[in-house]
Amino acid sequence: MDATAPQEPGPPILDLWHPVAILAELTAGETIRTRLLDRDIAVGLDGEGAPLAWLITGEAPGGAPESLPAIAAYEFAWTSLGTPPAEIFAIPECDEPDRRNLATFSVGVHVSAPRAVENFLDLGHFPYVHAGILGQVPRTEVADYRVEVDPETNELWALDCEFFQPQAAAASTDGQMSQYTYRVPHPYCVMLYKSCPTDESRFDVIALFCQALSADRVLFHTFMSVIDEVSSDEQIRAFQTLVSAQDKPILENQTPRLLPLEVGAEASVRSDRASVAYRRWLGDLGVGYGVIPAGLPDDGS
Amino acid sequence: MTAPDPASLLHPVAAGADLVPRHVVRSRLFGRRLAIWRADDGFINIWEDRCIHRGMRLSAGVNDGAELVCQYHGWRYSNRNGNCTYIPAHPGEAPAGALRVATFACAERYGLVWSGDSADASPPSIPALEDAEVLVLRSLPVNAPVPLVLEGLARYSFRPTAALGSDIPVATSADAGNPFSVTVTATTAGAASSVVFFVQPADAGRCVIRPVLSPAPAPGERLVTLRHHAGALEELRAQLEDARPTEIAVPLPVATLEPLRSGGTGGAAGGRRPQLQVRVARKWLCAEGITAFELVPVTGELPSFQPGAHLDVHLPNGLVRQYSLTNGPDLTDVYRIAVKLEPDGGGGSRLMHDSVHVGDVLDISTPRNNFPLRRDAARTVLIAGGIGITPLLAMAQTLARQGLTWELHCFARSDDHIAFGEMLDSLAGSITRHVGLTPEQTGHELGRIVRPYAPMNHTYVCGPGPMIATARALAADAGWPEAAVHFEYFKNESPRDDTSAFEVALARSGRSLRISAGESLLDGLRNAGVDLPSSCEQGACGTCIATVLEGEPDHQDVYLNGSERAAGDRMLTCVSRAKSGRLVLDL
Predict the structure, then answer these.
(1) Å from A282 to nearest chain B CA?
(2) Contacts of B372 in chain A (CB under 8 A)
(3) What is the reported pLDDT for A231?
């Protein structure tokens, strides 16, 4: 799919908030340049520390750039090329006073945002791609789990997921079954809730916010909201850096880079139900950017 | 001269020497990405470079000598036919037969590996390469279309090895041998040598030059010769890429490469019909009263199989018998089965022993697996009684190859009654022979084998009915969960009652039918046009299983275990019936 004509992000994607910068990397009075949905944009901060964003049209040099809406959320600056909702999806856990909210690791990956989200939703690759950390051969079985679309929010959830992890906690030697809940609140964002090692009644949140540079390239931003009084920021980031670095070469070797939505374009088994539901959900939302819509040929190149 | 359709020809895609053991090479032909690997048995696989599951490049996978393992989710694909043999996310289930990668034709000639979309095509025959030892020179990818590259190659000049470093005049002549090659011959007073340049059409704008030199230089002169050509070709590449026109003057004839066998991502149907013809290639006595057969395909390749799988063999007298495959994963070009002579049986084994000979053709089904092997156990205990060793042999070889922890216990009347005894000796693993035991002694040994139970242990038992029953009971006493005890009966030895009559509603097709006394549910379904696969048709193999949505089944099989029977949500349609007046099936 390298040679396809550029895709146009339709309204469902244009009207969403998209992450474009880590807040901590912005300085008042300065701008950084980045890309979103095949457009050049600039991001900065106002005197109050609130993010600003502009579309760089590239027409008259020195001409006034077009201002874009911008908000701060979850340690990132977000913008939109269309008409975004008043608020971004909520992660209520982040407001708890004893939480540490961290932008953990960002890396460019030559793949579509939906392929990256699907990888994040996938348990079956743990023993192969994250061997010794999130899984270990031969403990490869994916137990059945549930997938639901919340009728009120239209968010996609995968519930009652569990997987054997060789080192789920620093103190464990034999490994244990870890429980997960996945939530997809946005076509290009996904998060998981994992029981917190220090407080069984609460959940750590790990999120992937994809900045779609183009239909087949993303900046893969990760975010964590954890209850952890012991680890340093660097230790928390190191874990996420390692895991993301293991996924990058896998994602870049998937072909096609765009996610095929046609049923049967790729073989699915029971453990792929989250992936299958995500593909359907994207189709139902009318997403046509970063995907091969159902009904179009997938020539495998 | 009319140009042949380029897709009907074979093209070089790799050098034979590139296919190092246990490696995977990537290549490209007419825009198709290929993953090429040589199995330990020498067979070269040319596959679409894409896992059918989530599109991962198979060229990034692991060649384990008999299977290619995808790096993303560990899906395993078989040497030769590319069928998926194992899905680690579901260790207890056999992958659907239709799951396979797309495969392409393969041939070897002149030190190169050739592919295309026709199984009948051969690599081109080039006179200059026929009668001498040849040397494959370094290949070179060029960012230019085939016609331009062929034109440039026609101007190639070089010196024969004997004339290197001298200033003897050299005459070169070029000859377009076929639409995708050029032969350049250099002649001096003392020597002549030819380079044949095969041009691999990678895609519309790129190709790979694959030169072959004839005659091959003496070993001591090889390096200097390789350097000479590498330098000359590098120069040619620079010229070609600089001269690359924006508009291609002579476009490459349009071709798309179609696989010989397309990849598949869906499920398969099937009744109890023969699907394959095989020839008996070898027949030998592999133990007292046990004859082994090796079956080879009459045409094409054999479908792949998984450990625990069996075949239906359609005998010349109309009988259908099931035999387990004993093959390990590395044996993919034959099916190996073993048949025990049952003097009091239905005649199938007598027929196989006495009337089936080497060279005979048999109709068989494709392999089915109702006894799948999990490969996620901490320890696997295989327990064989007599001829029950056959599926367990396949399992033992698979476990040994993957380096997993296993042990095999063979119960038999004597050492001479253990089938394939010599193969057991060659398997690295814990193998214990228990011979000449009474039923009481067998029970005692089985008790020792299953104790104590440890978590993540799995046991597979195959043998006579009473032995399986004893092993299951002892394992249950020792604390084994039912899901960890796997068994396969050869046959259902319990009496069956087919006197009931009942209604069956088919939920998916919205029909209903009546099954009368003496008629099996499976036959009733088939008469109503429902094509349900079946195999043993005596409640032993599990092939004809159906999901029960409503009603209470009257289980008469030996396939389901206690909790599966109690759940009542699945039944074997060949022997089981209804206790309630009505069943609703998910068919």
Answers:
(1) 17
(2) none
(3) 87
